[in-house]
Specification:
The complex is a heterodimer of chains A (202) and B (152).
Chain A (H helix, E strand, L loop, with lengths): L1 H31 L5 H21 L5 H18 L3 H16 L8 H21 L4 H22 L5 E6 L6 E5 L18 E6 L1
Antiparallel strand pairs in A: 1-2, 1-3
Helix pairs in contact in A: 2-4, 3-4, 3-6, 4-5, 5-6
Chain B lengths: L1 H17 L17 H4 L4 H10 L1 H4 L14 H15 L10 H16 L6 H4 L9 H18 L2
Classes of the chains: A mainly alpha (202), B mainly alpha (152).
Chain lengths: 202, 152
């Protein structure tokens, strides 16, 4: 009987230490990688999903879907301009949803293919933005901006847009804005007015 | 004393019980034609490093450690590999569009540069997976060249 007890204790100890070890590792994981806080993200995106739907209903514009994506994109850009990490996270989650909702049915097959490619890529960047510190958000915003610029080339936009460019950030980075005045989302308050308008769209 | 014994017994049964729950093994015999190493005809020195440091979690073929036979370790690793492959799966590289490849290469470079990958928890056990400064430089240069050539 004593022997059984000893064996049981050893096994239980092993089990507990294994569990503890994997928990510790898992925790480390979350700090280390770019963040997989899906639970939080779900809450956020679900909340925004509803408001997106409402806006969609109000928007009589034919390109309603793309316009909602642009609206989120500009809000995200403005959050980065004012160095607001928390707000950028929230809008990132919302943007992820808006991207998913883009209706590509009215485009040609070639355009559909490209739009799907753009959406898939942009969604991933939006997701990372929704879970990352601001420096990392800006890295993803750079690639996201390229996706959105390519999207607008297909979907068009109801407003006049300005493609702006900062030669300093990561060997040169572009973004879209509704205003002609440059407000730099890559540097925020550090270099607010750094950049130039390189193209006018529409 | 009796309750302690009962608790211990329950734990023991639970521990033995979970050993029978199957996990999905991330292993395939054939290397798909879409594999990063094949598509890009990767030179041996880089190929070896990628397989050693990245492929366990970022491909369809994991070299499992012995302790993967024990639960709950296997669950933990399974979850990990699932997450890793979602972000980047080298086995499916060839099926990505130029846009996606560009994005992924950018992320690969950033992750290596920022010492975020391979994960510390991984290199803690897999000592040989750790990247030295010169290996990091080599990989970054290789990935940057690939990225440049994609866009040309």
């Amino acid at each position: 009987m004593k022997k059984v007890k000893l064996v049981t204790t050893i096994i239980v100890m092993a089990f507990i230490s294994l569990t503890a070890m994997s928990c510790k590792d898992a925790k480390k994981e979350h700090n280390n990688d770019e963040g997989h806080n899906t639970e939080m993200n779900h809450d956020n995106s679900d909340g925004h999903h509803d408001s997106d739907k409402k806006e969609m209903a109000m928007n009589s514009n034919q390109d309603g879907n793309a316009e909602i994506i642009l609206k989120d994109y500009f809000n995200l850009k403005d959050a980065l301009v004012v160095d607001d990490e928390a707000k950028a996270k929230k809008i990132g989650a919302s943007l992820e949803k808006s991207l998913e909702n883009l209706d590509v049915s009215k485009y040609t097959d070639a355009q559909k293919l490209e739009l799907k490619d753009i959406i898939l890529d942009a969604k991933e960047h939006a997701e990372h933005i929704s879970k990352s510190p601001i420096a990392h958000q800006r890295e993803h915003f750079k690639v996201l901006s390229k996706d959105i610029i390519d999207m607008v080339a297909i979907t068009g936009a109801s407003n006049k847009l300005y493609e702006q460019y900062c030669p300093m950030y990561e060997k040169g980075s572009a973004w879209l804005s509704m205003n002609k005045e440059v407000r730099n989302p890559y540097y925020g308050s550090k270099m607010l007015k750094c950049g130039k308008v390189q193209r006018e769209i529409n | 004393m009796k309750t302690v014994k009962i608790i211990l017994l329950i734990l023991l049964v639970a521990f033995v019980g979970i050993q029978f729950i199957p996990t999905e093994s991330n292993q395939t015999d054939i290397v798909p034609v879409t594999d990063f190493l094949l598509v890009n005809n990767v030179p041996n020195n880089i190929k070896n490093k990628l397989q050693l440091s990245c492929y366990d979690c970022h491909s369809n073929n994991t070299k499992y450690p012995w302790y993967n036979k024990i639960q709950p370790v296997a669950w933990f690793l399974e979850e990990h590999i699932k997450d890793g492959k979602k972000e980047l799966n080298f086995s499916e590289w060839g099926s990505l569009t130029i846009r996606r490849k560009t994005s992924k290469l950018r992320s690969i470079i950033k992750q290596i540069e920022g010492n975020k990958m391979p994960l510390d928890s991984y290199t803690l056990i897999h000592r040989d997976a750790k990247l030295s400064e010169s290996e990091k430089k080599l990989l970054i240069e290789y990935m940057s060249d690939l990225k440049e050539n994609l866009n040309n």
